[in-house]
From TrEMBL:
GO terms for biological process: glycine betaine transport. SMART domains: AAA. This is ABC-type quaternary amine transporter. Keywords: ATP-binding, CBS domain, Nucleotide-binding, Repeat, Transport. Belongs to the ABC transporter superfamily. It comes from the Bacteria. Residues 248-312 form the CBS domain. One of its GO terms (molecular function) is ABC-type quaternary ammonium compound transporting activity.
Amino acid sequence: MIRFEHVTKRYADGTTAVDDLSFEVAEGELVTLVGPSGCGKTTTMKMVNRLIEPSSGRILVDGEDISAVDPVRLRRRIGYVIQQVGLFPHKTVLDNTATVPHLLGWQRKRARARAAELLDLVGLDPTVYGDRYPDQLSGGQRQRVGVARALAADPPVLLMDEPFGAVDPVVRERLQSEFLRLQSQVRKTVLFVTHDIEEAVRLGDRIAVYGNGRIEQFDAPAAVLGAPATPYVADFVGADRGLKRLSVTPIEAGDLEQPPVVRLDDPLSTAAERLAEEGARWAVVVDDSGRLHGWVSADAVASGDPDARVRSRARRMDAWLPLGASLKKAFSTMLQHDAGWIAVLDGDQADHYLGVLTPARLHESLRRSIEADARGGARSEVDLDTVPGL
Ligand SMILES: Nc1ncnc2c1ncn2[C@@H]1O[C@H](COP(=O)(O)OP(=O)(O)OP(=O)(O)O)[C@@H](O)[C@H]1O
């Protein structure tokens, strides 16, 4: 969808900002450009909507060499979101959002209806915020309007230059989550500039790590964190890349342990047998449809009437996640609930219980995923040399 072919940009003073760059962004893909200040990220992005012209090389958007496309017409097909949002201060939020549809000659009513729809999509109720002016919004809300405005004419391509750079970390994380949710619905082809490796890893389908006008590595986030291509990339992603990697490694079925499982309506005597068979200190409790209820301890089972039901002794379990959630989320859920394990459910099948994840398994799956990347294979195929048990 966006293709750079040997693109170089040399400014008039001789600075080479981008040096013989070739890469491609597929349709519907979100690529983050990350690197230290001054390495050429913004120059790269501004060449896509012809705010800057390359010194040599070609850029194609949807197969078309953009040097032959009228810049104004080109920009209407390309949404652009920047850090200093650039909203018109004397226009309402609704009119700001409807800017491009207006320029495209849409009827006023249709443009405003579309703007309202977009505001809703970015989480701003148009009946509450539509008639406000930009200075009556918080920084995070202004950024949302910026995103809504860029999407208003439904452009296939979105360029985003540090769009969440000016807000505090908590708001930033919320905007990132909202943007990921939005992107899963609208599936634009996105180039996203950031100098924050965490943001790049969280948002990107692939990341381009920049060093001085060149791409040092262009790969999936897990691969960049797991197997940095050069010492420069390793240094840039940081010594704590194992931790960052937690956020891009999903919980897989093979990571789960299978403790004994009993049903709410089983007699405690059955639960006692099951626990004794497996020498376990607790069992997971599910309902008749296999949905998680909670857990029951061996002590609670032993001290109850053997004919009573598991239900009478079971405790609720709130620490659970769907399969595919990140290991970081798993770790944080364990800490939040002060839990020694969390239940993992199949989110697609009415929260069907699948197994549990323990801290030891979490550690193991993180190591497996690092090893798998280093060897270029799948995580399930990796055998670990485990540290001998104590
Ligand atoms: N108009 C210009 N004239 C001369 N040099 C420029 C011009 N614009 C940018 N540069 C230089 O080109 C290089 C790349 O700049 P660019 O803005 O693309 O970097 P960046 O990676 O986006 O940085 P940042 O994260 O700080 O925005 C820098 O050395 C910068 O000083």
